[in-house]
Specification:
This protein is of the alpha/beta class and about 190 residues long. It contains 5 helices and 9 strands, in the order H-E-H-E-H-E-E-E-H-E-E-E-E-H.
Amino acid sequence: MSSSAAYRDTSWASDIDHVLLSEEEIQEKVAELAARLREDYAGRQLLLVGVLKGAAVFLSDLMRHLSMPLCIDFVQLRSYGHATISSGQVEIVKDLEWSVEGWDVVVVEDIVDTGRTQDYLLRQLHMRGAGSVRICALLSKPSRRKVDVTIDYLGFDVPNVFVVGYGLDFAERYRNLPFVAVLRPEAYKTP
């Protein structure tokens, strides 16, 4: 039994409509993205900035493939709260501990949706003197984009559906799924 099949036996399995990206597909893509990062950042001062909480799983897997010197830090931004639609306002909940001045920074994101959060963070990092800033995102929803941001390292484009798993959540649930799944509307819409 695959690990994806094992998760279907849980009490909340009825919340999942279908698996969009399998654990195997994700791990293959993470290895591909890491290979590109190794090539692009060989001999450079690399700082991976994970955007909490969603990117924690992706960042953990990604950095295990990066057999090179690097540092990591985390930032937590809020634009959703417990809602399913971005408020449009971005605020820093947890700031970086490192100074980014002079560093080559790769922002590691779980998903790029409207682009507002990434645009805000990129501007902040540039203002703080980062040597370079790029985005590495597991997922992108191009149909939802409100702000044009460049995703330098992209795993997958996904349709405009509510996805959970592999770090992505709804109200802090489902982050531990090893795959990305579509959440049934009845699981997140209240009457």
